Amino acid sequence: MAQSTQEAEGEQQRRQAVLRERYLSFLQKSADKPATIEMCERTTVTATIKAFQPSSEHVIVGTVAVA
């Protein structure tokens, strides 16, 4: 029983590692790509993604235009 629990935990860790790798790859490939952002009050903004804050809480953009 303990071994199957360890196997399940190992599998979960592998899945999380794959997802994290994909996410980091997405962040890297997103630089200098156009983005359309739907904001509150039905405002649409277009911008170019420049970078992500290390915590990924904020996106740094340039060339901002309200559509």
TrEMBL record:
Entry's Gene Ontology cellular component terms: SMN-Sm protein complex
Superkingdom to which the source organism belongs: Eukaryota
Pfam families: Gemin7
PANTHER family the record matches: GEM-ASSOCIATED PROTEIN 7
Name of protein: Gem-associated protein 7
